[in-house]
Hints:
The protein is of the alpha/beta class. It contains 15 helices and 20 strands. The longest helix is centred in the N-terminal third of the chain and has 21 residues, at about 115-135.
Amino acid sequence: xxxxxxxxxxxxxxxxxxxxxxxxxxxxxxxxxxxxxxxxxxxxxxxxxxxxxxxxxxxxxxxxxxxxxxxxxxxxxxxxxxxxxxxxxxxxxxxxxxxxxxxxxxxxxxxxxxxxxxxxxxxxxxxxxxxxxxxxxxxxxxxxxxxxxxxxxxxxxxxxxxxxxxxxxxxxxxxxxxxxxxxxxxxxxxxxxxxxxxxxxxxxxxxxxxxxxxxxxxxxxxxxxxxxxxxxxxxxxxxxxxxxxxxxxxxxxxxxxxxxxxxxxxxxxxxxxxxxxxxxxxxxxxxxxxxxxxxxxxxxxxxxxxxxxxxxxxxxxxxxxxxxxxxxxxxxxxxxxxxxxxxxxxxxxxxxxxxxxxxxxxxxxxxxxxxxxxxxxxxxxxxxxxxxxxxxxxxxxxxxxxxxxxxxxxxxxxxxxxxxxxxxxxxxxxxxxxxxxxxxxxxxxxxxxxxxxxxxxxxxxxxxxxxxxxxxxxxxxxxxxxxxxxxxxxxxxxxxxxxxxx
Length: 502
Ligand code: NAP
């Protein structure tokens, strides 16, 4: 293995500086792009360049896929327990390096360090969970349809998998895919988002992740990480017939492109796409709890999560009280560099993200919305934005239909349950939804009426490795985490045995 090149990140005082890598990990080796080209990576809080990563393309991707294919036979025949032991070591390494991984994550992504630490343990939990789950990939026996027949169903790893991940959870979106894939006996080629390539392992960076994986004893070729041109890497991944499965987390627009590309070689796909989460507050809700839930759901990661409350629907009778309580809390939020103690809102990922937030606010204001707090770029400059609450929001505004992906809470007013459900479901998305209320009958009615893959009832936090995460409608297909998560990496095979004499 080459020595890691270490640069701008030195200021982070990592306990293990070798976690910060500026090369890709392909077929068990650290590698530069064929032509030596690289891409700079910046810190969104300071604008400083943290370092560079290789600008790889189709040729390097093809080699990584071929290496994954070569590694597959040996990896798949390991017993589930052997794979589980290796994954468990990977998990242990992640947790042992949690602080370093969190620092790398904050430096490249911007989220407060406390949130980054949580992401590392959340990310690691998928490796732990699927290490355990590997031993429980059960099949079936089915009574034969004829006297001499015996039917057995076995589950097998699908083969070489490819993953493409976003920048908002640079660690956890990787482990949610690599954990079940490797546990199932598959091998994987992964392309992280170009904005956040350093976030280690199931911890913070895909590159560092590969390194920790190697330390944990994963054979070469089982897991490769490439950075570079998304179109070239994505093009190779989706067209190469060796790849049997593509798993993607990101925007619905890119998901649709990948689905189309994958159709040419009929690959199995998992798509974790965009959301437009409604957060409904009924008039019998515990308002303080609802405010806490809204803060957690809306402002975590500066509003840049796929399960962020995008539309806050509040019943007439409690609208003003809820708005006042939420505004008071939002005004008190400390914005700044995620490395500083007490900061709860970091910067947005880039200039385009700031412009989208501004566009949504300007559109809402032009159609009658009112700013209760925030509403503009933060005095800190760069990509910092004031945590915002908007009142008098209605369905003619852009925030109704599009994911804002920023720290803006738009408050809609509704009269009754029927109207709330109608508003909530009036979107092509169907990932997460939330509601607060105490009436038990209504809880069931509303939970069943919401056209979403996930419903948070009296809670704003729904992510855990033990539950199935995923959406319906244009939010995608497949589930990550839980006993369902491993199914996406398996194929069912039916064995029909005949000629059994009595
Ligand atoms: P994005 O623009 O779709 O990018 C996601 C990944 O796709 C990145 O690695 C990106 O590479 C890559 N990509 C872009 N164009 C591509 C192409 N033509 N071919 C192959 N790969 C391509 O999304 P994002 O802005 O990073 O992430 C935010 C979105 O992700 C939001 O919509 C959010 O809701 C969604 N998300 C969903 C979930 C979920 O579980 N459902 C979780 C987190 C985020 P580059 O970085 O190189 O452009």
